[in-house]
Design a protein that fits this description.
- The chain has about 160 residues and is of the alpha+beta class.
- It has helices at about 1-35, 65-75, 100-115; strands at about 55, 85-90, 95-100, 120-130, 130-140, 145-150, 160-164.
- A hairpin with a 2-residue loop joins strand 2 and strand 3 (about 95-100).
């Protein structure tokens, strides 16, 4: 009799898990269908045998840019992340280190570019075995900014490379 009760409970748990999984899949499909151009889709962490599939953001409409924005955007130090230390700075290249989470750094740069009416041309966000590589390319017709945020699983700091 005990075995019958255990069997019924086990079948109930399997059915419940199946419904939960279907609900998660439906929500993921709705999120994919409802993404606006500014939405960023997260890529699930693949197993070590799978190749990572990057998440890509669609292009935003062409922004309107004023001359004041162009002059400040041409200065490489304009793109210095607040909680970072400069590793290299020269001309149109800036390399930084930060102890902040790479996702926090990425979100800061996305907001900075949006606030400057920069068009986000390309965005790729990957994470495999806790190795992070996020790339943003943005422009406004006059200036093109390329930002790479990377952090290896073994590193304590994230590396930020900015090129204009």
């Amino acid at each position: 009799m005990k075995n019958v009760h255990l069997l019924v409970i086990l079948i109930g748990l399997i059915a419940l898990a199946s419904f939960v999984q279907k609900g998660i899949n439906k929500n993921e499909n709705k999120n994919l269908e409802n993404n606006s151009p500014a939405d960023i889709s997260q890529t699930p962490i693949p197993s070590p045998t799978e190749k990572p599939t990057p998440a890509v953001i669609k292009e935003n409409p062409t922004p309107i840019v004023t001359e004041n924005q162009n002059s400040s955007q041409a200065d490489i130090n304009f793109y210095k992340y607040p909680n970072s230390q400069t590793e290299e700075s020269g001309g149109n290249r800036l390399v930084l280190n930060s102890s902040d989470d790479p996702n926090k750094i990425t979100e800061w740069y996305i907001e900075k570019l949006k606030n400057q009416n920069m068009k986000l041309n390309s965005f790729v966000k990957t994470k495999t075995n806790n190795n992070v590589l996020n790339k943003l390319i943005s422009s406004n017709g006059t200036i093109k900014v390329s930002i790479t945020i990377s952090k290896k699983n073994s590193d304590t700091n994230a590396k930020i490379a900015v090129e204009i």
